[in-house]
Amino acid sequence: MRETVNKTKAWKKLEEHYKTMKKTQMRDMFDEDKNRAQKYTLQLENMLVDYSKNRINDRTMKFLFNLARECQLEEKIKAMFEGEKINVTENRPVLHIALRNRENKPIYVDGKDVMPEINAVLAKMRKFSEAVRLGTFKGQTGKKLTNIVNIGIGGSDLGPVMATEALRKYWAKDINCYFISNIDGTACAEVLNKINPETTLFIVASKTFTTIETLTNAKTCRKWLVDALGEHAVSKHFVALSTNQKEVEKFGIDPENMFEFWDFVGGRYSMWSAIGLSIAIAVGMDNFEKMLEGAYAMDQHFSQTDFEHNIPVILAMLGVWYNNFFNCHRHAVIPYDQYLQYVPAYLQQLEMESNGKDVGLDNEYIKYATTPILFGGAGTNVQHSFFQLLHQGTEMVPTDFIVPAISHNEIGDHHEILLANVLAQSEALMRGKTVRETAAEMTAAGKSKETVAFLKKFKSFEGNRPSNTIVLKKVDPYALGMLIAMYEHKVFVQGVIWGINSFDQFGVELGKQMALSILPELENNASGVSHDSSTASLISYIKKLRK
Ligand code: G6Q
Questions:
Q1: Pocket perturbation via mutation, ligand 1, pick of 180, 208, 349, 491 by most ligand atoms within 8 A of CB
Q2: What is the pLDDT of residues 341-362, one digit of tens each?
Q3: Where among 222, 253, 288 does a domain terminate?
Q4: Could you say which of 288, 323, 348 is where a domain stops?
């Protein structure tokens, strides 16, 4: 049994070290060391990660890397890349990295190289996406399919939604993408109202092909299509992305129209697989493969670079530093790019479903904090909503800023204003404005003594609030691949440090099970399950309203 992380030597060192660092001001460290930014900045191709605005010094980083070593991070990375069954609760390897293994180096699972099958699916995706884009794969009435509707939820939705939006500028001119995920009939109705069955391709994305939301939405869409074009139309308008051929056939989709992936690809790590078909159709397979190449470059960097220069390792260890030593249990991610607006939602699943766990790999309850709550939204919009809390709230919220140097829409001085804002935010969070500085500024502006005395605290900023700034050249498929793979590996590292399996998600099961027992009651059948009085009276109140 491994020693829990909070009993390691490095953890104890960090606890001690925290006592000296908690009062240290970043602005002083910047004043004292003119090289600080250079020292704590890394670059991988066109991606730059400046982590100098963190409450760290060389000793902090040394202790954090020691912690990573004590947790055998290097061995664990190797185990993942070599296809070991590191998802121990489900007895599976974790091989999203194989999906973008662009050098095609064999990766063995139970003695079998997985690459030929992965390449075959990529080839099938290329053939199909090109046929749809060229209009050689036509709908039942001979029309080109220009409405692409992905029906999926969770990992079978968030990646495609995030990536298609991020790459909207690369969409084929005549193609539109839609996403139906929620079981709320509104999700289906609103999409179906906008599209024409003759020109619509439904992509049913479900690893298990048993997810109630996806199957219910898919059945509704199927009926809508059949009502308009007849049963024969299904094979021209429906494809499936799944690991479960039996269920796909049962649903009535020809296995010819099924794009396979495998158990070793977790839902929230699956946009690189067949689950990315909507992305491939929207932006073209060449661009999809560029996204894989970007991710591969990050995989190479992550698996081959020493911890001291390793971007995902550093971001992960900084997260551990704040989460477990400063007790900051929130983390904000703010992309300053409209096309990246769904990145925070995507990362919410990636981080919180992967590492929001309370049982360790040693089968014991964990006695320290695991993943923080992740939230965010596109800047500058969120500056006008929750940034108040980032600047003056009582809890420090470590923040990642993501920004492209070049916009796809360089209109007037929009992008310079956006850039000025992101840079100002990280500087303001770091520097703050002391009460004394505030008072001096107000006095210089001619405010009365009484006003200054009354307002100086309200208007001051504690500062010393950490952030990372991630600069991309432009939001293109390659950069997006790098960015998302960077966060995937960050999550992996944190899972190793916290001693948890980042690749299962049993936490989402209980609610699903209970919904199945409540459903018959709403439909006026007995379920045989007794509820607490709150749930029971909510059921009866809702039933009364629905009569
Ligand atoms: C992701 C999770 C979860 C999953 C959905 C959809 O890692 O496993 O979000 O992706 O529940 O599952 P299916 O793809 O099987 O429909």
A1: 208
A2: 999 999 999 999 999 999 999 9
A3: 288
A4: 288
